[in-house]
Task: inverse folding
């Protein structure tokens, strides 16, 4: 489950788009006991800066949407007072009518992936049966988009639904295949309250959260966010906060001090080419320093880091 926020700076009338994504994944206790306790972890990420806003650890038996709005509100409290949320991107795990009402009451724009429910299939069939009224717009050779304004029985009003059609690969076996829609296409639906974007723009807007998936993989593989080695939930939560601080410090160092060509490297790469490079501690007293091997790349990077730190200290 993920939620992406676009934040706008209010004071001084200057605006900055700052997406932030809140994601949820299941992690388990890897201590060798007679049982394995599972947790669900929600994290809040500011997408443009990749900073972690907030983390929580919940029982694994809870549904993905459990406590979602409480987590969103806690993330809102972590933001500076002069920043307001402009837009949210929500994965299907948190697709819920109450979430829509909350976002609308706060004046947020939202782009929410809908669950694959029966009513979605009804709307898709309705559109396909009336293609003269609802023509498909081709994005590329694989994806097409359409839209319809419809109302669920539980909803209080009609809302905009953008339908995405993905063409499935056809097996080249020489066999005759049935000409049935289910064998040719895969469908998804996005519910939104944004009116000034085209269906194609809504499709691309939602897909921006895909970059966050790479960041989540880095958190799991590089900072062991999916490992909980402590004896109980409270200790695991404290350990998770320590990991959060370590990640934010590394992220700040990478974006502020390292050369620009290294600012997009993940932690595993930076460990290999910089952090884990062997060196000798030489000198005596106050004149101790690290002597690295004669490596032109390493010399360039360390020289840049020293200059960047000097500029940072002066500012």
Result:
């Amino acid at each position: 489950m993920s939620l992406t926020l676009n934040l706008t700076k209010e004071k001084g009338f200057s605006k900055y788009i700052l997406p932030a994504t809140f994601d949820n994944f299941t992690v388990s206790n890897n201590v060798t006991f007679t049982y394995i306790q599972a947790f669900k972890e929600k994290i809040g990420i500011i997408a443009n800066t990749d900073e972690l806003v907030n983390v929580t650890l919940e029982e694994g038996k809870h549904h993905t949407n459990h406590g979602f709005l409480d987590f969103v509100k806690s993330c809102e409290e972590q933001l500076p007072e002069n920043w307001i949320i402009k837009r949210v991107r929500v994965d299907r795990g948190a697709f819920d009518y109450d979430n829509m009402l909350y976002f609308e009451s706060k004046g947020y724009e939202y782009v929410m992936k809908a669950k694959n429910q029966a009513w979605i299939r009804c709307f898709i069939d309705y559109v396909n049966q009336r293609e003269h009224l609802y023509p498909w717009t081709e994005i590329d050779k694989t994806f097409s988009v359409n839209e319809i304004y419809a109302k669920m029985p539980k909803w209080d009003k009609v809302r905009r639904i953008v339908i995405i059609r993905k063409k499935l690969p056809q097996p080249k076996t020489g066999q005759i295949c049935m000409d049935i829609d289910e064998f040719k296409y895969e469908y998804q639906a996005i519910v939104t309250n944004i009116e000034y974007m085209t269906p194609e723009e809504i499709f691309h807007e939602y897909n921006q959260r895909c970059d966050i998936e790479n960041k989540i993989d880095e958190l799991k593989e590089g900072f062991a966010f999916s490992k909980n080695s402590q004896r109980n939930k409270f200790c695991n939560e404290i350990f998770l906060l320590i990991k959060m601080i370590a990640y934010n410090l590394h992220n700040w160092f990478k974006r502020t001090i390292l050369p620009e060509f290294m600012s997009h490297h993940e932690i595993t790469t930076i460990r290999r080419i910089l952090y884990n490079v062997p060196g000798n501690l030489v000198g005596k007293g106050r004149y101790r320093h690290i002597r690295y091997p004669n490596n032109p790349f390493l010399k360039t990077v360390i020289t840049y880091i020293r200059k960047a730190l000097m500029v940072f200290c002066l500012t």
In short: The longest strand covers residues 18-29. The chain has a mean pLDDT of 81. The chain has nine helices and 13 strands.
